[in-house]
Design goal:
The complex is a heterodimer of chains A (190) and B (260).
Chain A (H helix, E strand, L loop, with lengths): L7 H11 L3 H12 L2 H17 L10 H14 L2 H9 L19 H9 L1 H9 L3 H12 L4 H8 L3 H32 L3
Chain B lengths: L6 H8 L5 H13 L1 H21 L6 H7 L16 H51 L6 E2 L3 H7 L18 E11 L2 E10 L2 E9 L8 E4 L2 E7 L3 E7 L3 H16 L6
Antiparallel strand pairs in B: 1-2, 2-3, 3-4, 4-7, 5-6, 6-7
The chains are: A mainly alpha (190), B alpha+beta (260).
């Protein structure tokens, strides 16, 4: 593979497309790495790789999905990514129960939990990276399932099941924090 | 539609992924099923909550500055009609400033790209070295013999290189792998100095790059360039031993044609 120098026009086009996405890329990078410096390194390396490979980008295709895919692949080969893949499951546990097995808390409890951003963020932090990333792509970045499938390099059916699994896991985590906070309130001295 | 809506349909509903026909069927069901309506509302609220909580990390201004080049536009000062000489002077100054600005911007852009390239190369080389340390898969070729390792790359790389015939004390060739560095095919030569493992990544050198040394995550990185090659050595061995191996590798490239 030959090094293809980026022309000035291409670099300008790249900046126009990529710079507005930098905050989103950084946000996802931070969630994956959980470290500011690692997130900055990840985004910087993503920009470099994307700039260098920009000549291979097809203008009629989805730039956002393309650069997020580079970010994810870069993460997976990074030190933190390698460490994460050694400690958490990469594949979905298809036999894990979905919503049907969840004992829902009261609607009031759910409302309180969902309105507390810090509580939701704490619950998200307990999720494994492959579930967090799909929530970020689907809910935060508002990508379509088709785009998510491109980013994660998985079939759309897997995207759907993983979205369902991520939301189930988030509900479970929120339910746990709600129950803990209620238990804490009950234990408070009168 | 019989029974309750499965989670996948509820998710597709709130993610706006249903076709018009599917959406019509789901809406028809929701109109008659309070339980599914409540579940859809709950899922929608969960999505909103995740969207708000998930957007919680913003890059620093300094970091954004590193990614972007901010162009500062200087407003042109107003002049009186009688001050023609001043107009010309300002025009000349603006022209000069434009030339300086364009040149500076070009240099800054090139410097930023070079800086990005440098840090990305170091980071990628260290990552690959760590991956090699952690790997349980044997390398593509296992040999202490340079005459076995070098021919293994024939037909695998678009360039050739020499391996040093004599190595520094306590340094052993262990094998090699084919890999990619910076989207280019690369040879990963695996050495051991005492008990420290060393990776030397060798790629074709397509542009002039000054040799450099760097430290990252406890690993020392030393690059070297030869006529048509760029190599990056990575290890946690002391820098002196790594430099000795890198020097021998570079000297081996000066013998022409490449040894067989």
């Amino acid at each position: 593979m030959q090094w293809k120098p980026t022309t000035r026009d291409a670099a300008r086009d790249f900046e126009t497309l990529a710079l507005p996405l930098a905050p989103s890329l950084y946000n996802v990078a931070f969630w994956l790495t959980r470290q500011q410096t690692d997130a900055e390194d990840l985004v910087q390396e993503t920009f470099f790789k994307a700039l260098r490979g920009f000549s291979s980008f097809q203008p009629e295709t989805n730039f956002k999905a393309w650069i997020f895919r580079i970010l994810r692949n870069t993460y997976l080969t990074s030190r933190t990514g390698l460490a994460a893949t050694r400690t958490v499951p990469l594949a979905d546990h298809e036999d894990a129960p979905l919503d049907a097995a969840i004992d829902w808390d009261t609607p009031e409890g759910r409302m309180i939990g969902l309105s507390n951003q810090a509580q939701v963020r704490s619950a998200m932090e307990t999720l494994p990276p492959h579930l967090v990333e799909i929530l970020l792509l689907c809910d935060v970045e508002e990508m379509k399932y088709k785009e998510i499938a491109l980013v994660l390099d998985i079939p759309i059916g897997t995207v759907m099941s993983r979205v369902a699994r991520a939301r189930t896991a988030l509900r479970r985590a929120l339910l746990g924090t709600n129950m803990n906070s209620k238990a804490g309130r009950r234990e408070e001295p009168k | 539609m019989s029974g309750h809506l499965p989670p996948s349909v509820l998710n597709a509903l709130i993610d706006n992924e249903l076709s018009p026909a599917e959406l019509a069927r789901v809406n028809e069901h929701l109109a008659q099923c309070p339980s599914c309506t409540a579940a859809a509302l709950s899922t929608s609220m969960l999505k909103q909550a995740a969207a708000q909580a998930g957007r919680s990390h913003a890059p620093s201004a300094q970091f954004m500055d590193r990614l972007a080049h901010h162009s500062h536009r200087t407003p042109v000062a107003a002049t009186t009609p009688r001050q023609h000489w001043l107009n010309w002077a300002i025009a000349a100054a603006l022209a000069l400033a434009s030339v300086v600005y364009i040149a500076t911007r070009h240099i800054t852009r090139q410097h930023t790209i070079a800086s990005l390239a440098h840090s990305a190369l170091v980071s990628e080389a260290v990552d690959q070295h760590i991956a090699a340390l952690a790997s349980t898969v044997p390398p593509g070729v296992i040999s202490t013999d340079q005459h076995t390792v070098k021919p293994w790359f024939q037909g695998k790389l678009p360039f050739s290189f020499n391996l040093p015939g004599t190595l520094p004390p306590a340094t052993v060739l262990e094998g090699a792998n084919l890999t990619y560095i910076g989207n280019q095919p690369a040879a990963e030569l695996l050495y051991r100095i005492h008990k420290h493992r060393v990776s030397i990544f060798v790629t074709a050198n397509n542009e002039a790059a000054a040799p450099f040394t760097a430290d990252l995550a406890g690993f020392h990185v030393q690059s070297l360039t030869a006529d048509h090659l760029q190599a990056v050595a990575v290890s946690d061995v002391n820098p002196t031993d790594l430099a000795a191996l890198a020097r021998d590798f570079q000297q081996a490239q000066q013998s022409s044609p490449p040894e067989h």
